[in-house]
Design brief:
Radius of gyration: 15 Å
Order of helices and strands: EHHEHHEHHEHE
Mean pLDDT: 95
Number of strands: 5
Structural class: alpha/beta
Length: 153
């Protein structure tokens, strides 16, 4: 059986440890333990950068997050992904302030990832973003990517 290719953005990794939202944390841990073993999991160098930058003061959390993802394949922000990111920005799908979100989608798209899993409802997990990303990806020869939350997968 071929495993689906899944890209995790940083919100999924941080939600695993974030007890400020217990229900989301519970759903994340369920997803992690019940679904991840059946999937081919990818992250990116952008995810690593976000983890390292956002946990500077908390070495223990940083260590736990890095251990949690240590077996995942790390994809790079290539020139091709940078060009697709620029297209997303030019078309107004993402603002410059949310460039890392655009990078996540572009990296996943150029690597033919099937699903991008996120808890980011502001920039990623919404109908408008899904539609516009699909439109630009199709116009540029990339497959559609499904942007979903853990329970949807």
């Amino acid at each position: 059986m071929i495993k689906s290719k899944v890209f995790l953005d940083t919100s999924i990794i941080s939600a695993y440890f974030d007890n400020r939202e217990p229900y989301r944390q519970k759903l994340t841990k369920q997803f992690w333990h019940d679904r991840l073993p059946d999937l081919d999991i990818f992250i990116s160098d952008i995810v690593l950068t976000e983890i390292l930058n956002n946990t500077e003061e908390n070495e223990k959390l940083k260590k736990m997050m890095l251990e949690l993802i240590d077996t995942f394949t790390i994809l790079q922000l290539t020139k091709e992904a940078e060009e697709l990111t620029e297209e997303y920005l030019k078309r107004g799908i993402f603002s410059v302030k949310s460039i890392f979100d655009a990078n996540h989608v572009a990296i996943a798209s150029v690597n033919s990832i099937t699903y991008l899993v996120s808890w980011n409802y502001k920039h990623l997990v919404k109908v408008k973003t899904r539609f516009e990303v699909s439109s630009i990806n199709n116009a540029n020869g990339y497959n559609n990517i499904q942007i979903v939350t853990p329970p949807e997968l």
